[in-house]
Amino acid sequence: MLSFSHYIEQASAQHPDFDFKLKHAMKPVSAKKLANTPDDRWLSCLSQCVFQSGFNWKVVANKWPRFEEVFCNFRTDVLVMWPQEQYEQFMQDDTIIRHMAKINSVYENALHRTNRTVSLSKAPKNNA
Length: 128
What we know:
By secondary structure, this protein is mainly α.
């Protein structure tokens, strides 16, 4: 059986930005910390993953402060109130990644976070 370090070396050799990705990979956190994470940080993290898909992660990381600004720090209460035209205007903003489906996902995910009826911390326990 090959060691884990073998696979790390192989991935690093095949992907030039592997070290960057590994450095920015999320580290495990406690359930308490997860439960205390506000919705805007969940939406920001989720949106960053969406925008990274198919793009150079360094480009997304460099543009991310502007995303935070443009999307009002991912405040779900604000984002769900914007009309569709607001999201369409982002296609003219060259300081962010202009991909309409990904931009629309910010609204869809904000709406989902706003409309959820049971929080993760209050979800029924599975006693099976």
